[in-house]
Specification:
Length: 263
Amino acid sequence: MNSPPIRFDDGAAYEVYMGVWSQSVGDAFLRWLDPAPGWRWVDVGCGNGAFTEMLAERCAPADLQGIDPAGAQIEFARTRLPAGTPVAFHVGDAQSLPWAAARFDASVMALVIFFVPDPAMAVAEMVRVTRPGGNVSAYAWDMLGGGFPYAAMLDEMKAMGVAPPAPPSEDASRLETLRSLWQGAGLVDVETETIAVQRSFESFERYWEIAQTGPRVAARIAQMDEADRARLRDGLRRRLPVDAQGRLTYGAWANAIKGRVPG
């Protein structure tokens, strides 16, 4: 790849940037998934532990493991769940999971498959560590269809000729690609869903403050002079009009998939 890697080095900052979005889409995803209590779970690409926390609170897991390549995110994740929660976090690679075959009842990848260099390898690993009859699932912002929460920021930057780096596997966020990955890994009873969510910001200024902190865009914006930053801000203001109370509300959507390990 020619683009620099997209790094997630600050769990607290990422929570402000993506927390409300991930909470909303995670709620809807879990309602759709409808898991049974008492499962043994692995959250692959758990980041700062936002979805892992939801699994702990809502799914009564017998065991819960989270894994992510970013050590700083894992350190943040370890601070967010109360003592006594049956959870452990690990630094590691989705493409080479450190567990034995059939270790879990369910493996899940939340808002991360498009960051994995080889999604097929990661899905194969999720299948490997999930027992026969177990559940393998994921959901991802529709990166190529405009579903990413900060798509307007990315589009405006592209229009200015300062496109931020793209994730290595954007195509993996498409429903057709997800379905192909799940079926190619031998999963059965595969189902898909598109999940739409909304978020409101108290003002355009608050949106602008938060949107600049995204891991894909922060370095590019820091390199701009004041005139270019003003052009970017004004272009976004035109794309995202506020309501009569000065609030900014808009939507995003994610593609979700689930399947069962045969046997």
